[in-house]
Design a protein that fits this description.
Largest sheet: 8 strands, mixed
Distance between the termini: 31 Å
CATH topology of the largest domain: L-amino peptidase D-ALA esterase/amidase
CATH superfamily of the largest domain: L-amino peptidase D-ALA esterase/amidase
Strand content: 25-35%
Number of helices: 11
Number of strands: 15
CATH architecture of the largest domain: 4-Layer Sandwich
Radius of gyration: 22 Å
Order of helices and strands: EEHEHEHHEEEHEEHEHHHEEEHEEH
């Protein structure tokens, strides 16, 4: 798939020396040639990073011209100095496009508790300004500029057809561990050339994030820097979207965010499997999501999948302690299309056949069906391997 940047935006990513590896981008810049509306959804961790504090104060809002990103340093738990550094990053980015500091937003990720190397950040922003471009290579470099332990950059785009108009939506994200709902070490940035007011943008983003980025988990650890920003600059022209037009746009935005969210546990640290958990037949969507999250966060379920072990007892018991009342006699379980448990009791199946199915496919499907109602939820997670322990025991950007 060719990744296109929406009209009116340009981007760049460079290595500025924050990361030791000179082949890895660590500063990125996105500029809009016209004022853009912006919305943001942020971590619910009480310990949050300086860029989260900076962006949260300004969004939703209008008139934004730039987003500056760095990886390798989270600028978290850095006190007043960290807040000043985030503001300075915004100022430096805004200067590039002749804007004021409150017309730029900031994203940071990396090591917690270290002060920002502002000389390197400043030089990186200057270099980015000289390399701003509209092509796929520039987008990839930008997406790589937000990576930490990710093994691949994460980009996805979609055209949104709204009546006789069409709009580009392009998103990028990072995340491989410290991933949990609400959200967990992840950054997301979505750009569109559609004309949408900030209030509608915020409402839409909050709803979509709740159903996508808040339905993933790698290790259940909520981070300090989690942010998803959505910018709409209206460069495609026409009047502001409203009513049914917004609903059509929301569908395309949901697809972009869903694909980006799914890509995070797919690239989970040390992961060998992407696990999709579908919970059906619940009284409410919230109940279904709570059960799915309980299964997703279970280290015993995750290690069973890593070992290609069709251990249905771990899955059923994780559902049972989710804190959602249901009739255990009404539970069915299928793994990769094989029925392991029906009506609250095990059924005969070939353990070897199911194990082979898990072992030979990176994607693993877990479907829990209850008989409490019609609500459902989908959740993604990764398996848990010895490599996850090694990577996080040794981690230091």
């Amino acid at each position: 798939m060719t990744i296109n940047i929406p009209q009116g935006f340009s981007a760049a990513g460079v290595h500025a020396g924050i990361k030791r590896n000179a082949t890895r981008q660590d500063v990125a810049l996105i500029v809009s040639n016209r004022p853009a509306a912006a919305a943001g959804v942020y971590t619910k961790n009480l310990v949050f990073a300086a860029p989260v504090a900076y962006d949260r104060r300004l969004t939703p809002g209008e008139g934004f011209r730039a987003v500056v990103i760095n990886s390798g340093n989270a600028n978290a738990c850095t006190g007043e100095r960290g807040l000043n550094d985030a503001a300075e990053m915004a100022r430096l980015a805004a200067v590039i496009c002749g804007a004021g500091p409150e017309q730029a937003l900031v994203l940071s990720t990396g090591i917690i508790g270290e002060f920002m190397p502002m000389d390197k950040i400043s030089a990186g922003i200057t270099t980015c300004a000289k390399n701003l471009a509209h092509d796929e290579a520039a987008l990839i470099a930008t997406a790589r500029g937000m990576m930490t332990t990710d093994t691949v950059h994460k980009l996805y785009c979609q055209m949104a057809a709204v009546g006789d108009r069409s709009f580009q939506i392009t998103g990028m994200c990072k995340g491989a561990a410290m991933i949990a709902p609400n959200m967990g070490t992840m950054l997301g940035l979505v750009l569109t050339d559609a004309p949408i007011a900030a209030a509608e943008l915020q409402s839409m983003l909050t709803e979509v994030v709740d159903d996508t980025f808040n339905c993933i988990s790698v290790d259940g650890h909520m981070s300090t820097n989690d942010t998803v920003l959505l910018l709409a600059n209206g460069a495609a022209g026409g009047g502001k979207l409203a009513g049914e037009e917004l609903e059509h746009f929301r569908g395309a935005l949901h697809e972009v965010c869903s694909e980006l969210a799914r890509s995070i546990p797919a690239d989970g640290e040390g992961a060998t499997h992407l696990i999709c958990i579908d919970v059906k037949g619940c009284a409410t969507a919230a109940a279904a999501r709570q059960i799915a999250k309980s299964v997703a966060d279970s280290p015993l379920v995750k290690t069973a999948i890593a070992g290609a072990d069709p251990n249905w007892g771990r899955i059923v018991s994780a559902a049972g302690y989710a804190g959602v009342p249901f009739d255990p006699a009404g539970v069915d379980l299928d793994v990769n299309g094989f029925t392991l448990y029906r009506g609250g009791a095990p059924v005969a199946f070939s353990a070897e056949q199911v194990s082979t199915s898990i072992k030979t496919h990176r994607d693993t499907s877990i479907v829990l069906s209850l008989r409490e109602g019609r609500a459902a939820a989908r959740f993604w997670t990764a398996d848990l391997t010895a490599d996850y322990v090694r990577l996080n025991a040794d981690y230091h950007t």
